[in-house]
Design a protein that fits this description.
By secondary structure, the protein is of the alpha/beta class. 40% of the residues lie in helices and 16% in strands. A 6-stranded parallel beta sheet has the order 5-4-11-10-9-8. Strand 12 and strand 13 form a beta hairpin. Helix 7 runs parallel beside helix 15 and helix 11 crosses helix 13. It is elongated and about 85 Å long.
Length: 525
């Protein structure tokens, strides 16, 4: 299979982004004459992250790109030859050179194909799915806390675990419910909406003695003479300081010069960072002077940002001043200027910032979305479930680590209102559940079977790749985001509770449960 001409595919993962034991097992399969034996693996996780009852599965697009581009280059094979035993037969390396995924089939996420190839795919697929799903789920939790009205921006690139981690976090926090990211590359490669204005360094770089090369600004309607914006700002500063009962010398000159410079560059998107020196005595009056000067020319400032202190309290005070200034100077748009906050916002602080009556409009979150401090790993696994059409099961003294054997299908059973009742796993040869018909199932962790009568049935597995080719076009990131949010909206409130949620039920069919019992009793093949 020819590699897809997609630079993002090469950036996402390469064949040697893997553990060495995948290569040593590949050699073992080849020496045993089993390299082309058909096998099936399943990728899954054993428990929902963060103590919750749901997870968003993410990373499909990255996995498909990786599979379609999968081929070992000469340099890859030469490196493997340097780390495998020196007496390894050259024919094995020739076999590696001919590998691709043209014989691999991938529903999300079962992987079927030649044993040697699907074994080699384990680590890259785990790498692509685990972190993406963890980030998406973490972002979904933060969205549930914030509610639907607050805008959430991911701002964690500088705190991420390297460039790849940063791109993944920006991409899948958007899928999980964030509104955008500061990461420009995520915008370019993945279509994530990007946002950002200025940092404290921009403001502190100005002393107030700088002279703009062109301080003149034309009216927004492009009619009328150009105006010296800096001079207009100084005139407005007198009026603002009088209203706020501040001395005109109190607001920092350098900060004001920085705001003027930024306004000249972005007159239609001016936003002030208020806390470089003092919010009340400098940042706010300087912002108001610039915003009102722009307003005279027909422009509207878009917002302010706070990055320190008691963000909730400061936002209340700023909104109150916006309202009084709006009334004093007859500028009604000023009342609704957006207030953005950031500063190590975690789940607890987010709940406080998003509470009823908060005047905050936008919340930027960095470290606590990209590093997932409550649980830094999802713990996905990739396990063999059949070889040559025969089921395989891992038996272990730890019951949680036992696997479910055989090639399977998965269905979501829904009630009359469309809410999920449970998910059921069954062997692929079994007839699918039917809406309105009673079904006997074995809930995981229960000692007895129960019956359920679904009003609707949804298949959960979709075939995406067959013989190296896409079976249907991949959804865009925005479409995946919409689907994720729709799926979350259908979960019952008790499953979406962030603390002590009701566990979501997963059950086995009678036939699959019988296979598990038989293999346990016989010691498994």
């Amino acid at each position: 299979m020819a590699a897809e001409q997609d630079p993002e595919a090469l950036a996402a993962a390469r064949p040697l982004l893997t553990d060495l034991y995948q290569a040593t097992m590949a050699l073992g399969y080849w020496r045993a004459g089993r390299a082309r034996e058909q096998a099936e693996f399943e990728l899954f996780f054993r428990g929902c992250p963060f103590g919750g009852a749901f997870a968003l599965a993410a990373g499909l697009r990255d996995c498909v790109r990786f599979l379609r581009a999968f081929r070992l280059r000469d340099a890859d094979v030469q490196f493997l030859a340097s780390v495998l035993p020196p007496d390894t037969e050259p024919a094995f390396f020739e076999h590696l050179r001919g590998l691709d995924c043209s014989d691999v089939t991938v529903p999300l996420l079962q992987v079927c194909g030649p044993l040697l190839v699907v074994q080699l795919l384990e680590t890259p697929l785990l790498c692509l799915v685990s972190y993406a799903s963890l980030i998406a789920t973490n972002a979904a939790r933060l969205r549930l806390i914030a509610g639907p009205k607050k805008r959430l921006l991911e701002m964690g690139l500088r705190r991420a675990q390297g460039p790849d981690g940063g791109l993944t976090a920006s991409t899948y926090s958007y899928l999980g419910g964030f509104d955008g990211s500061s990461n420009v590359l995520a915008g370019q490669l993945r279509g994530v909406p990007v946002a950002g204005t200025l940092a404290h360094s921009f403001i502190t770089s100005f002393l107030g003695t700088e002279v703009p090369p062109n301080p003149m600004l034309a009216p927004a309607a492009s009619q009328g003479p150009r105006v010296d914006l800096a001079a207009c700002v100084e005139a407005w500063l007198d009026r603002v300081c009088a209203h706020l009962r501040l001395g005109v010398q109190e607001p920092h000159r350098g900060e004001r010069a920085a705001f003027v410079a930024y306004a000249l560059a972005f007159p239609r998107a001016f936003q002030g960072l208020l806390d470089t020196y003092s919010v009340q005595r400098s940042g706010l009056p300087n912002f108001l002077a610039v915003a009102l000067a722009l307003g005279e020319l027909g422009y509207r400032a878009v917002g302010v940002r706070l990055d320190s202190g008691d963000l909730l309290q400061q936002a209340q005070e700023i909104r109150k001043i916006f309202r009084t200034i709006s009334a004093q100077f007859q500028v009604p748009w000023l009342e609704s200027v957006s207030i953005t906050v950031s500063n190590n916002v975690n789940e607890e602080e987010l709940a406080r910032l998003a509470q009823e009556g908060s005047e905050i409009n936008v919340i930027g979150i960095g470290t606590n979305v990209v590093t997932c401090p409550r649980q830094p790993s999802l713990g996905c696994v990739y396990k063999l479930v059949s070889v040559g059409g025969q089921p395989r099961m891992k038996l272990t003294e730890d019951p949680e680590k036992q696997t479910l054997p055989g090639s399977k299908a998965a269905f979501r059973l829904l009630g009359a209102d469309g809410s999920p009742l449970l998910d059921v796993l069954q062997l692929v040869e079994e007839p699918p559940p039917q809406a309105g018909q009673e079904l006997r199932v074995w809930p995981r962790g229960a000692q007895e079977a129960c019956t359920v009568r679904p009003a609707h049935v949804e298949p959960l597995l979709r075939l995406w790749v067959r013989r190296g080719q896409l079976c249907e076009p991949l959804p865009s990131l925005a479409e995946s985001r919409d689907f994720a949010q729709l799926s979350l909206s259908r979960l019952s409130p008790e499953h979406k509770r962030l603390e002590q949620p009701a566990p979501y039920r997963v059950a086995l069919s009678d036939k699959l449960q019988a296979l598990v019992d038989r293999l346990r009793a016989g010691g498994a093949p």
